Amino acid sequence: MTTINQLSSTDKLGASDLVPIFSTANGDARKASISVLSAFIQTLLAKPGSLQTQYASPNATGFTVAIAPAVEGASMFLLLTPVAGYAAGTISLPSAPSDGQEVLVTCTQAVTALTVNGGTINGAPATLAANGFFRLRYDGVNKSWYRVG
């Protein structure tokens, strides 16, 4: 059996070229194409979940913005761009969040009295400064949102 050190080397790789691997699941040496290896590495480098953006431009104090349901496993980025700073506003979290889902909220204007509703929320902000933000993460075991940023 030829060992890796006895193989000739190359300076260029193609998608169909093969690389030797040892499969611990099967307990033997195997081969995989560069394209298969590349696809596997991409899954390791991919950011878990995805981030969907929702826009809202409230034009009066006392506004309510409901964060839309996200695709399973996706997190939401709510970009608030109110016309001016407001005395009060409410953000409603998704009604059926998935475990580990996050909601990131940023706002270009101040909201003096902020209400965040939608189940049990630990550490919800009561106010939001101009250009302020916060991040909540849902824990499916405790069925609660937790402030994480």
Structural description of this entry:
This protein is mainly beta. Helices cover 8% and strands 42% of the residues. β10 and β11 form a beta hairpin. The radius of gyration is 24 Å and the shape is elongated.
Low-confidence stretches: none
N-to-C SSE string, H for helix and E for strand: EEHEEEEEEEEE
Please tell me how large the radius of gyration is.
24 Å
Largest sheet: 6 strands, mixed
Strand content: 35-45%
**Structural class by secondary-structure content:** mainly beta
> Ends: how far apart?
56 Å
Strand order of the largest sheet: 3-5-7-10-11-9
User: Judging from the principal axes of the Cα atoms, what is the shape?
Assistant: elongated
Question: Averaging pLDDT over every residue, what do you get?
Answer: 88
Helix content: under 10%
Secondary structure tally, helices: 1
- How many strand segments? 11
Q: Could you give a quick summary of the protein structure above?
A:
This protein has 149 residues and is mainly β. The chain is built from 1 helix and 11 strands. The protein is 8% helix and 42% strand.
What attributes characterize this protein structure?
single chain; 149 residues; mainly beta; 6-stranded mixed beta sheet; 3-stranded parallel beta sheet; 11 strands; 8% helix; 42% strand; elongated
